[in-house]
Backbone:
């Protein structure tokens, strides 16, 4: 994004976690096969044949096929960071 | 040097493509290309060549990319080109995005003040021997049908008197006239609608103007033998929004919906507005006038389907509340009240991106072709992600007589884009011909053009592109008798 950069999120800093690396990691529940759970926090989902960020967290989270670096959870991002993400196209 | 945002929504299959392409004699699987298909399936869509200037911009601002599958004697070539608008050229010259939010010129880079902001990314049409890429915020952009290179804006020899031109003009199948319109016709935030008839030779022969109940998006219209029908409502804008650097439209749940009906032999003062419960009417299939009744069929969303048009009440966009159903609405022009009949004609959700046999525009028709998601179909989650039940995996022939759907399943790693119908011949019965549309194959990371028999909905052949193609918004079959593709 021209002229803009992502700042470390509050939550990521508190956890001491790597911010963007964490964006591609699958949460433990998914790794255990708990597909179909409805998160209550913003989540990357699939809508009208595109990926978007569902701020309501009502939609099922998208899991890419194995080996593809793609839409992970965004719960570690701050609200400001989420607004910076392109949610369409 | 461009840095493309490595967001979680732009990776894998959804990562930027950015290239132009020529593929000659494309690979074909599963059968042979029917040799009576001679012309081109032309589509337009796009992606941000440079990332958007502001984070709340959205999919309607992506740079236009026009492509075609050229059919000639059983061979298919593919070509894809950026629509090289003044905006695209300015960005390329600067090596960055210079334009701000969707239809909001107030926060552009000062160097592009006054430049045409359109990206011409929404629909393609052919008329009077010319090919156009359309977006409803500007004039049509003429495209060379042989090369797909951009020629420039076209105002019909100065006779078209609106700053905007819809992405969805309609054609009278009897006269060959193109009936078109522009809203915000006199410029940004104006509330006038300009309606224009262009004859089959490309000459403007009739025009009128009228005002809407309030300024709102009017993306599509219905043409009947006697009327034009304009659905609108819910999307709102004003100077305060634009000065606050918001995208052009917001979704106001409290705003009423309207259907405007204009007699084709009347003028702007004859338009009648029916007030409706608020649904999001984006695309319509068709309609007809029967006596004093006007009947339309359309896919209607129960709320705003576009996440980048925020709710004006501040609530977050909720994709779980945007289901689309196929409706039939009947308006009695003898009635003294706003009321009308509204029927959901198929119980399962389906896409509003559907087509009828264009030869039946304005008349009674029996068949609608559109996409839908069949959750009972298989999906290979290991190869394509956990999208079972969420992809548009079927084309359907929706028979309005029997209320039956004849499906064509695209495959267990696929999602379908809008289809187009091609009559087998000029005199063939309604719906006899071919259906074609592009499927995204999430496992093989490529686009595939499906060609099917439109009656049996059986697949005849599949054209394979060795890459992901940008998602297109709309496409249309254009025969060799309409355009010279070389």
Residues:
């Amino acid at each position: 994004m021209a002229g803009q950069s992502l700042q470390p999120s509050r939550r990521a800093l508190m956890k001491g976690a790597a911010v963007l690396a964490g964006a591609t990691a699958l949460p433990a529940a998914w790794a255990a096969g708990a597909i179909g759970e409805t998160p209550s926090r913003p989540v990357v989902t699939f809508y009208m044949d595109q990926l978007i960020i569902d701020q309501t967290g009502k939609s099922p989270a998208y899991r890419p096929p194995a080996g593809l670096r793609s839409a992970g959870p965004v719960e570690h991002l701050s609200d400001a960071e989420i607004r910076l993400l392109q949610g369409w196209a | 040097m461009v840095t493309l945002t490595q967001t979680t929504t732009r990776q894998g299959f959804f990562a930027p493509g950015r290239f132009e392409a020529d593929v000659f004699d494309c690979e074909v699987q599963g059968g042979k290309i029917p040799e009576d298909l001679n012309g081109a399936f032309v589509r337009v869509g796009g992606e941000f060549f440079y990332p958007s200037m502001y984070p709340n911009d959205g999919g309607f601002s992506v740079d236009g990319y026009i492509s075609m599958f050229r059919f000639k004697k059983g061979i298919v070539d593919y070509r894809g080109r950026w629509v090289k608008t003044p905006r695209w050229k300015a960005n390329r010259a600067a090596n960055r995005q210079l334009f701000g939010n969707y239809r909001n010129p107030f926060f552009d880079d000062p160097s592009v003040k006054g430049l045409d902001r359109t990206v011409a990314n929404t629909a393609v049409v052919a008329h009077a021997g010319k090919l156009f890429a359309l977006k409803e915020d500007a004039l049509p952009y003429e495209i060379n049908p042989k090369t797909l290179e951009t020629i420039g804006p076209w105002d019909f020899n100065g006779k078209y008197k609106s700053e905007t031109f819809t992405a969805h003009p309609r054609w009278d199948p009897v006269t060959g006239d193109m009936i078109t319109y522009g809203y915000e016709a006199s410029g940004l935030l104006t509330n006038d609608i300009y309606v224009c008839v262009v004859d089959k030779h490309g000459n403007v022969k009739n025009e009128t103007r009228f005002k809407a109940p309030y300024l709102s998006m009017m993306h599509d219209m219905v043409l009947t033998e006697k009327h034009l029908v304009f659905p609108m409502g819910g999307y709102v804008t004003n100077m305060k929004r634009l000065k606050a650097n918001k995208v052009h439209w917001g979704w106001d749940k409290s705003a009423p919906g309207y259907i405007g009906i204009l007699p084709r032999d009347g003028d702007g003062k004859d338009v009648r507005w029916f007030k409706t419960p608020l649904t999001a009417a984006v695309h319509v299939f068709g309609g007809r006038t029967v006596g004093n009744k006007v009947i339309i069929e359309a896919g209607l969303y129960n709320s705003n389907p576009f996440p980048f048009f925020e709710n004006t009440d501040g609530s977050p966009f909720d994709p779980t509340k945007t289901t689309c159903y196929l409706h039939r609405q009947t308006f009695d022009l003898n009635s003294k009240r706003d009321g009308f009949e509204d029927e959901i004609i198929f119980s399962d959700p389906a896409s509003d991106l559907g087509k009828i046999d264009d030869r039946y525009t304005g008349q009674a028709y029996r068949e609608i072709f559109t996409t839908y998601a069949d959750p009972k179909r298989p999906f290979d989650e290991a190869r394509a992600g956990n999208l079972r039940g969420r992809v548009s995996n079927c084309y359907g022939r929706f028979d309005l007589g029997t209320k039956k759907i004849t499906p064509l399943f695209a495959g267990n790693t696929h999602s379908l884009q809008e289809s187009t119908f091609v009559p087998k011949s000029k005199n063939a019965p309604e719906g006899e011909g071919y259906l074609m549309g592009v499927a995204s194959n999430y496992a093989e990371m490529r686009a595939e053009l499906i060609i099917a028999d439109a009656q049996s909905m059986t697949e005849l052949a599949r054209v394979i592109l060795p890459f992901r193609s940008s998602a297109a918004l709309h496409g249309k079959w254009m025969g060799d008798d309409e355009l010279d593709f070389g």
Remarks:
- DSSP finds three helices and 31 strands in chain B.
- The helical segments of chain B are 86-94, 239-243, 381-384.
- The two ends of chain B are 37 Å apart (CA to CA).
